[in-house]
Write the structure tokens for this entry.
Amino acid sequence: MKNIRIILPVYNEEETILAFYDELKLNLAKIPNCSFDTLFVVDKSTDNTINIIEQICQNNNNVEAILMSSRFGHQECIYAGLEYSKKYDAVIMLDCDFQHPIELIDQMIKKYLSGYEIVNTKRSENTQRSLFKRIGTALFYDLVKKFALPNLEKNSADFRLLSNKIVKIILENFREKQILIRGIISLIGFNSCTLEYQENQRKYGKTKYSFFKMLNFGISGIISFTSIPLYIIFFTGFLMTIFSLIFLIYFLIYYIFSNNVPEGWTSIATLQLIFGSINLLFLGFLGIYIGKIFDETKSRPRYLIEKKINSKDE
């Protein structure tokens, strides 16, 4: 009998949480040779989510919840769930908005029981998503795979099964404060497989990932796992320096051997704008790296817990 914990990061899901848990409970009851319990990790919500989860915990002894004291983010909630699940044979993490198909859990467990330490999932192409979101997602994975994580599965999701061994490896060896779980999973190797699924539509509510959150997620994915942008800055600056020297020599020769002072100040102003923009862009890259270093050196906690419900942990 395998003891498996379901980790559910939650933020403002009052419309869907009860229906989702009822469906999850029905599906888990059909899976043999496994005992399950559920952990809700609630990012600081502003709706009625917390009250609904408290009711679920009161009515089910195998359901626990930890409530964050502030808004810390999706990845931090997943990490907290892992820290409170070290005693289980395996964990399964998924979102509770119905987009991750609950029925896939049965296949994930079968893969785990056959010997896989990591069972990843990836979305099949979803034409119902907006064109803008599809382009943004494709660009994110292309850039991250090219520059940072070549083993990252395209369209991978934070819907996966991890064995107890993998959970302990993540907690004991990856110390960064701003953590990207799917990036770490793609780094550590081990015996893994990937299941493909058709993403469901949200039954209630709307996505919590705005354009700027997706952009920040993509930048973090690149910055956290590679220093290649710094090398790009260096080589681009080197080429621009050579380009500038050539122009300088050209203007000096023109000034010495021509009777007229060179005209074309528009072109010079244009070049200044180009170089100024490039400098600002590069300073932005450097600033992001320095900001990441600054955040790591402060050693602030990843998250703070305000309350635990039904908790069996110390």
